[in-house]
Amino acid sequence: MHGVFHSNGFGHLLCVNGMVGGSNLAGRQIMEFWDRLCTGLRARKVSLNDISQKRSMELRLLHGVAFSEPWFGRWGYKFGRGSFGVTRPMHQKAIETIQGMPLCILVHYLGSSNHHIPVIFSRYQTVSDHSLVTLGDLFRFMLELKTHLPEEHCVDSHIVEPTCRWSPKRVEMATRVIVEALKKAEFKWVSRQDVRDAARAYIGDTGLLDFVLKSLGNHVVGNYLVRRCLNPVTKVLEYCLEDVSNVYPGQQGLVISNSKMKGRYKMTRPQLMKDMLYLYKCILKDQKPTMIHGVLSAIPAAARIILDTKYLVKEYNGELPWKIHHTGHEEAGKMTLCYCTVVCKRQKRGQ
């Protein structure tokens, strides 16, 4: 971390290098220290030039779409000034434009030429406990979900709940048997009972089969997305496969959880970061004709405005690093600070 602090209370944060930059501390830990340092030194106003990135993703754009503020916003840094005539209202309007873009519109205009995007949308909608309607909803959920996922180096793993009575190997074997049974149906809808009967030829434990069938709906396994729905006529659960090999080539044994599967299987952080980077490049940074012209042309224009806003400031307004308690007063911990200028004059001899 490199910063400058002037005696008049103004400071400038010049550089923050987290773990990626070779530090033993994460970027947020360094920022916590810097913020406490400025508070302790009675800072008046601190500025910075936001060029923070994560895997080639500009965080001021990513966090702006997700949380309506840059990554530094969690420590109180706000719009200072924009480049190329960008004003605060323009910056706020740009954020709202991208945030409010409906996912259904993106699927309609991009889904026919890019099958990855609808599959990714569907995956995180399945995982989420609430409806993801806009692009802002999706990126916010992905970033919040990322904080709850452990660091991993392997994406093709099954994670089974500790209380599960079957080992991960047996669950994986039963999953593959069920997928093979569905593949024989040639991507047609098959009733739950028919799938169960076909799998029993290889898996004798019916309890294990019931557990996997209950958990498997709307999950990606290998190169296939397992679909599950209730037949409106027969009122019977049915399953079918959807080939997504062009989306996740070479991924074997990947199972993704939904809200009903929490604690049984869960998504991995590498896979989430891969999806986030893909959406960032295809939607927020794409310069293809589909994005430049038509309904979606507002996205690259708004993204450019957000990226042109790098100068951020924080006004401390006399924040104190500790609380001063006054017994019996409602506004405990508050203090009025008076800033003044002291002029020292040298007195001549004899006066």
The average pLDDT score comes to 80
Put simply, the count of helices is 12
The geometry reads as elongated
H-E order? EEHEEEHEHHHHHEHHEEEHHHE
Question: What Rg is obtained from the alpha carbons, in whole angstroms?
Answer: 27 Å
Question: What distance separates the N and C termini?
Answer: 51 Å
The strand count comes to 11
What does this protein structure show overall?
Residues 165-244 form the PTC1-like winged helix-turn-helix domain. This is PTC1-like winged helix-turn-helix domain-containing protein. With 351 residues, this protein is of the alpha+beta class. The chain folds into two domains: 2-101 and 301-315, no CATH class; 103-284, no CATH class. Helices cover 38% and strands 13% of the residues. The protein is built from twelve helices and eleven strands. The protein has helices at residues 27-40, 59-67, 88-99, 103-110, 116-127, 135-146, 168-183, 192-200, 206-215, 269-284, 289-292, 298-307; strands at 2-5, 10-15, 45-49, 53-54, 57-58, 78-81, 190-191, 219-221, 224-230, 237-243, 311-315. It has a five-stranded mixed β-sheet with strand order 1-2-3-11-6, with no helix packed on it. A four-stranded antiparallel β-sheet has the order 7-10-9-8. The protein has a two-stranded antiparallel ribbon with strand order 4-5. Strand 9 (224-230) and strand 10 (237-243) form a beta hairpin. Helix 2 (59-67) packs across helix 6 and helix 8 (192-200) packs across helix 9. The radius of gyration is 27 Å and the shape is elongated. It starts with a strand and ends in a 36-residue tail after the last strand. The model is unreliable at 152-160, 247-265 and 320-333 (pLDDT under 50).
